[in-house]
Amino acid sequence: MSFNQKHLLGIEPLAPSEITTVLDLAEQYVDLNRRDVKHADALAGLTQINMFFENSTRTQASFELAGKRLGADVMNMSMQASSIKKGETLIDTAMTLNAMHPDLLVVRHPHSGAVDLLSQKVNCAVLNAGDGKHEHPTQALLDALTIRRAKGRLHRLNIAICGDIAHSRVARSNILLLGKMENRVRLIGPPTLMPAGIAKFGVEVYEDMREGLQDVDVVMMLRLQRERMDGGFIPSEREYYHRYGLDAAKLSIAKDDAIVMHPGPMNRGVEIDGTLADDINRSVIQDQVEMGVAVRMAAMDLLARNLRTARTEQGVMA
């Protein structure tokens, strides 16, 4: 298997072959997760610490479940009640954790680059579970697996990413991944929610939803990131839904077999029509949740293999 990373901090450093390696291994874990007995031993004897400085339901739960199904000792740290709140710096926290000899560190942080900084201070594999507006690599990987399973391939597809592009680390990671896999990516949203200079990423930008959805294979909706907004980015939620919320009429412009995605949590009636979100013939939103556990199992498995190899080599050299 081709995967040479020490950490999983973003999609940007990954080669297409490494992305394929993660997805291929994740396919095996999809099968495992559907069995009555869902346990493997890829992480047996290893310690996984989950540090979430931002609230999370899907990501934290799936990382915890992934680690336990692979046999790791999993600890969830409540960062809201941690020493960070008492004035301790992120680096001091990292040094403290490092002294406990963890093997896998899963981190979500509100500031871009914080996870990268932390990875430089610890002697274990670090997985980025979302840092500010920067990246959310495992979300892009699970989205990629969902698309590949639904469409039978992950290249030369027309994929529309719609909504709050400016504040979305999910959008950034997906743009990078889908571009590496030779897809045509369209971004659709109001100018106020489109980052400056986005065209340099090799994407097409549309302000009109109906124009942008013409003949696409995949429609990926995004959550309005209100917690990251500072000012009036949209006139009202009602107006936003009218122009950019996905409903049956707008979806009819896409291909007849186009799939609908959303990373969650959804604002029904704002970003997407509730009936459409639950349409088993078009929506793969629940599949995304399922794929999340399998992809995170694969990512931690691969990083653990590299970690063990590095430690063995260090031991031989010593």
Core attributes:
318 residues, four-stranded parallel sheet, 39% helix
Q: Reading side by side through the largest sheet, how are the strands ordered?
A: 7-6-5-8-9
Span of the ends, CA to CA = 27 Å
Indicate the low-confidence ranges by residue numbers.
none
| E-strand count | 9
Largest sheet: 5 strands, parallel
Mean pLDDT score: 92
| Basic shape | globular
Describe this structure in words.
- This protein has 318 residues and is an alpha/beta fold.
- It is built from eleven helices and nine strands.
- It has a five-stranded parallel beta sheet with strand order 7-6-5-8-9. A four-stranded parallel beta sheet has the order 2-1-3-4.
- α6 (169-180) links the parallel β5 (158-162) and β6.
- The radius of gyration is 20 Å and the shape is globular.
What is the gist of this entry?
The chain is of the alpha/beta class and about 325 residues long. It has 11 helices and 9 strands.
Q: What is the element layout, followed by pairings?
A:
Layout: H1 16-33, E1 47-52, H2 58-69, E2 73-78, H3 90-98, E3 104-109, H4 114-119, E4 125-131, H5 137-151, E5 158-162, H6 169-180, E6 184-188, E7 204-206, H7 209-212, E8 218-221, H8 237-244, H9 248-251, E9 259-261, H10 274-277, H11 285-317
Parallel strand pairs: 1-2, 1-3, 3-4, 5-6, 5-8, 6-7, 8-9
Helix pairs in contact: 1-5, 1-11, 2-11, 5-6, 5-11
